[in-house]
Structure formats: structure tokens, C-alpha cells
């Protein structure tokens, strides 16, 4: 995380709302009603509908690039209106605001929580009688705005034990006799298939990927493969991914999230 503090309050937004409807704009309007001077950065609103795992992945890859004190508002909330907690969390890089459903578990695995509260203080909600279907507007957006404007975390509600926050059960990679086994954890806009195998496993090694009966060579850049050919490499996010040079690996290879793969280490001979 950057060491300098936020000179101007900053709020990021992440959701599965897309840009077809007005939901994102409405949340921005609520934030502006609290403090029109806040800066707002859209991380993405194209998370697949109710896909908490994708939200978790995108958030963990975005947070390290923002200055300390940033408030990250994430609303991918299939449990809206249920008994799931609405929370705000302080961590070394700033704050997280949203539902307690595992979205934040990736960030908090890298940057442990310092403190957490359940958002029970209705003074900081848009209304004391929030919609059962749009907590992003009525609870999370105003709370994020107040937090970014200097309201102390403890004022927002009842303190809770950060260790009890929901953790998403994301599959982990594992050692095999010939390399490392894993699965596809995310598919990006280009159709690149991002695995759950981190770069550390393949550094300074020769390797390939085996998946769905295919063997895909491990290289360094997309252009190391001919036009239309599959390639495996480490993406900018730090995970082994499968791509097709100037193509869409997801569509062309018919490989989906959670499909298994193996990175196989090759002899140097």
C-alpha cells in the first residue's frame, strides 16, 4: 500500500449492477448528498450477477494501488435484506464497506483487519427504514461517504470481532507429483482464464499447463504465441493465466470457472 495519506477523500465503487440501470448513479448521488467533494473511482460494475468470488478477486487486485485511507465500497449482495451483516472494516490500506459475505476475505487475507463494526447506527444511513433490496443506496453508500468524510469507524455501529467475518471458501492450489494443481478462479473481459496458481510457483522454472486434454506452453508474453494459438503466462495480477493471442480463451476453449488445471514443471534438459 502507498504510505502517504489521502489528501482528498477517495471512495471506490465495485458492484454487479452493470451500467444499464441507474443503480450506480443513484449510489453516487447519495454519496454526493453527504459530501459533494468526495472523489469517486469506479473499479467495475460488470461483476457477473451475484458472483461474490469474482468480486473478491477484483477487489484484492485493485486495493493495493490506492492510497492509504481510501474507502472501498463493494456491493455484490445476493443476501440483501437477509440476516447477513452490513459491515465496515478498517485495514492497513483504508476501509471496506459492504455486506459480510466473503467479498472482503481476499483483501483481509493479505492485509489483516484492524477493527470492524456492524453498521447498526442508523444516524449514518440514508433512511432509518432502508429498502429490503437496495442496501447499496440506503446503507452502504451513505456510510462510505461519512467514513471518507472523517466519521470514526466506531461511530458507525457495534464493534465486532474481525476474525468472525465471513470467509469465502475459495479453492487453493496444491502440490502434485509433477507440478501444481489448481483451478480457474476468474475470467476477465478478454476471455483470459485466470488460475489460482500464483507466480511464485513458476518463477525461474520451465513449465506448461495441462487442462481439458490440452497442453499449453508457459511463456512470458502474449506475443510469444502465434496468432490464434493458446499460451500460458503470468498476468499482471500475479496469477498463472491461459490466453489466446488475439483471441478469447473462454469462448474458444470452452473452459469455465472452477475447471481444474495443472502446471507441470519441465526438465531443463
Pick out its properties.
eight-stranded antiparallel sheet; 269 residues; alpha+beta; Elongation Factor Tu (Ef-tu), domain 3; Rossmann fold; seven-stranded mixed sheet
Q: Brief description of this entry?
A:
The protein is an alpha+beta fold and 269 residues long. It has helices at 23-34, 52-62, 105-110, 135-148, 249-253; strands spanning 2-5, 10-15, 39-44, 67-68, 70-75, 86-91, 94-99, 113-118, 158-160, 174-175, 179-187, 193-198, 207-211, 214-217, 230-234, 239-244, 260-265.
What does this entry look like structurally?
There is one protein chain. The protein is an alpha+beta fold and 269 residues long. It has 2 domains: 2-164, 3-Layer(aba) Sandwich (Rossmann fold), CATH 3.40.50.10790; 174-265, Bacterial fluorinating enzyme like (Elongation Factor Tu (Ef-tu), domain 3, Beta Barrel), CATH 2.40.30. Helix content is 18%, strand content 33%. The chain has 5 helices and 17 strands. The protein has helices spanning 23-34, 52-62, 105-110, 135-148, 249-253, and strands at residues 2-5, 10-15, 39-44, 67-68, 70-75, 86-91, 94-99, 113-118, 158-160, 174-175, 179-187, 193-198, 207-211, 214-217, 230-234, 239-244, 260-265. The strands form 3 sheets. Strands 10, 11, 12, 13, 14, 15, 16 and 17 form an 8-stranded antiparallel β-sheet that branches. The protein has a 7-stranded mixed β-sheet with strand order 3-2-5-7-6-8-9. Helix 1 (23-34) packs parallel to helix 4 (135-148). The protein is elongated and about 65 Å long. The chain starts with a strand and ends with a strand. Residues 1-6 have low confidence and may be disordered.
